[in-house]
Write a structure and sequence with these properties.
The chain is of the alpha/beta class. The protein is built from 17 helices and 20 strands. The chain has an eleven-stranded mixed beta sheet, with helices on both faces.
Length: about 500
């Protein structure tokens, strides 16, 4: 599984301290390496600017800005530094002093506003080095005014933030909070030394993830991944080719080795949901499956389209007595149900099986979950709120809830949103940050359940199955149809295998 470690602000600070105190790095060296990485990563961007303005704060982030200004100046770019106040960081003081000597001087905010009023439209590339990831307090009125000016001005054709967008806090989302807690509307963010957990989901336009680029500066991010200083959060990278190859049938496969599954759902009038999940499983190579449903119409609906399929009107409690139950590895419960099945409460899942709970099988707070070691719940945000009795406005808030919920209930939870989050019973978690508006249509959740069942039936563990399913679904972005139906998406995916 392709993934990269995500560090919280506190973990990043710990690594910074470790590099300086135990490994003997000079803070000035790390700051210079950060600035050099940002310079080289954006060489084409600098060339587009008539002038580059860097807003520098009083801490380490401001020091990074001064170090970058020094390099830009030495490489022949027109650059200016504006500081909110003298730098308080020792390494930052060094680079502030260096910039004063090489550029002649640094400017203050009074100079900034004066020059801003005289600047031409789209003439300035702005680098935001005001506040780093460690900033936790309230913004001063001075900084609020500065951030609002930067966001609203047509002078700046591009805004690049170092490490994080100044003022950004994932817990303060929404228009009302945005007024009280403004942040720089960065066009991109350069994450320095570590990938930042708090930056996940950075957004200032609806459903638009702003690009973030990671620049290595020599932090010990690999040799010091242990329980004492790392919280097991990971960033999933798309792996579309592996997703295709894994799901393809092998020449030696028979109907059970190709994957077997049970599907339960589809109340009367909602049979289409469970049929879609089953269709995704079958058409993507699944070997054998059977549909169980509370609907008395399920057999006629299934056999009408395909006489080779199996379907039965049944309750969940009856499934375990069906001969097919002992032969299958994977169960999907929920598509087309309107409420949590009572038969699931306290039910024990056999050790050799994996269970997906989706849609109507997502419990309400107070419902007892089934017991087992391989249970995956796939709620969207509203269902997560109902399941936990809490409101979640960010992936970080959802994590805070699920990191307790999942170990307590021994379940995996995949939150489906424009940023998806998988939290595991062992405390590890994975984020998938690949918004796909083509999936915002009726039936795509049922489609995902069928795709997940397909990978799980091939003996992938739940984290790997989730990664492969999300990578596979990402292919739907290539559809020319702007608003494809779930069936159109499935048809396009079938063509890949």
């Amino acid at each position: 599984m392709k993934h990269q470690s995500l560090f919280t602000n506190n973990e990043s600070k710990a690594l910074d301290s470790l590099a300086i105190k135990e490994l003997g790095f000079k803070e000035e060296t790390l700051m210079g390496m950060a600035a050099l990485s940002v310079f080289h990563a954006n060489e084409d961007l600098w060339k587009t600017a008539e002038s580059i303005w860097i807003l520098c704060g009083t801490g380490g982030n401001g020091g990074d800005g001064y170090a970058l200004a020094h390099i830009l100046h030495q490489e022949g770019f027109q650059v200016r530094c504006f500081s909110t106040a003298p730098n308080k960081n020792e390494a930052g003081k060094f680079y502030e002093s260096l910039v004063s000597k090489t550029l002649g001087s640094t400017s203050n905010l009074e100079d900034f506003y004066k020059d801003w009023e005289e600047a031409e439209e789209d003439s300035v590339l702005l680098v935001d080095a005001l506040l780093g990831t460690g900033f936790q307090g309230e913004l001063s009125e001075e900084l609020k005014e500065l951030i609002d000016t930067v966001n609203d001005s047509d002078v700046f054709f591009y805004r690049l933030s170092l490490d994080t967008a100044s003022g950004w806090n994932p817990y303060f989302l929404g228009e009302k909070n945005r007024e009280a807690h403004p942040f720089i509307f960065a066009d991109s963010i350069e994450e320095l030394g570590t990938r930042k957990w708090e930056n996940i989901g950075f957004i200032y336009e609806k459903d638009s993830i702003i690009p973030r680029y990671y620049e290595s500066i020599g932090f010990p991010v690999r040799s010091h991944l242990n329980k004492d200083n790392f919280s097991n959060r990971y960033y999933l990278e798309a792996d579309p080719e592996s997703a295709i190859q894994a799901i393809k049938r092998k020449n030696k496969d028979h109907k059970y080795s190709a994957g077997s599954a049970i599907f339960y759902g589809g109340e009367t009038g909602m049979e289409g949901a469970i049929l879609l999940s089953e269709e995704a499983f079958s058409r993507l190579g699944g070997g054998i499956n059977k549909i169980f449903s509370p609907s008395s119409q399920i057999s006629s609906l299934v056999l009408k389209d395909d006489l080779s399929k199996m379907a039965k009107t049944s309750s969940i409690s009856e499934i375990s007595h069906d001969p097919f139950f002992t032969k299958t590895k994977t169960m999907v419960v929920g598509p087309g149900l309107t409420k949590y099945p009572e038969d699931l409460e306290g039910w024990t899942l056999p050790e050799d099986k994996k269970l997906i709970l989706d849609a109507g099988a997502i419990p309400t707070k107070g419902n007892l979950l089934p017991k087992g070691n391989h249970i995956l719940l796939t709620p969207h945000v509203g269902e997560l709120n109902r399941m936990t009795g809490k409101i979640h406005n960010s992936v970080q808030a959802a994590y805070d809830t699920l990191i307790e919920f999942c170990p307590q209930n021994n379940v995996y939870v995949l939150l489906k949103s424009f940023v998806s989050l998988l939290v595991c019973p062992d405390g590890s978690s994975y984020v998938w940050e690949s918004p796909n508006p083509k999936l915002a249509t009726m039936g795509t959740g049922d489609l995902l359940s069928g795709i997940l069942a397909r990978y799980l039936s091939l003996d992938f563990d739940i984290p790997d199955a989730v990664h492969l399913a999300l990578s596979f679904l990402d292919h739907s972005k290539q559809l020319e149809e702007p608003y494809p139906s779930a069936h159109q998406i499935l048809k396009s995916l079938v063509e890949l295998v």
